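Input chain follows. Return structure tokens only.
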Amino acid sequence: MVVKIIQKENKTLRKIAEKVQIEDLKKPKIKKILDDMNEALDREYDGVALAAPQIDVSLRIFIVSGKIFDENFIRGHKILERVKARPNLVFINPVIKKMSKDKKLMAEGCLSVRPLYGKVRRATRASIEAYNEKGEKFEMEGSGLLAHIFQHETDHLNGILFIDKAKDIHESYPEEEYK
């Protein structure tokens, strides 16, 4: 069964997601959730990350698409291929540890708030601590788009949507040729 990305009207998106018990990472249920998240994100050519609540699972998990590390994607050639250059990164029970005081207004959208886009002011650098799918704790620092993603996805885990913070909200549809 194809898992669906839920939309802003669904109450799961407004809940504070529950922490994952690290010992549960070995259970088939968590593996299935991660597989479903990867499948759902990989289906969306313009998606860069996905939180578990977006597939109607209220757990503190998000994934970041490996394609954001592709040079062509970063340069704005987002629709060159649907092939993943790197595997998606998994963040379980993520906690933002540090954020820069320097903030920047950036365009933002969301797979659960289609077709709305807006501008959100977020820290330009952020470091996050989380567990991977093997239960190993790690810390990662990001700047630019990655820092923005850390903050957007952590908001999802706290029941916050980008439209709660955005300015200049408007509708935008992908070009027909990219569908």
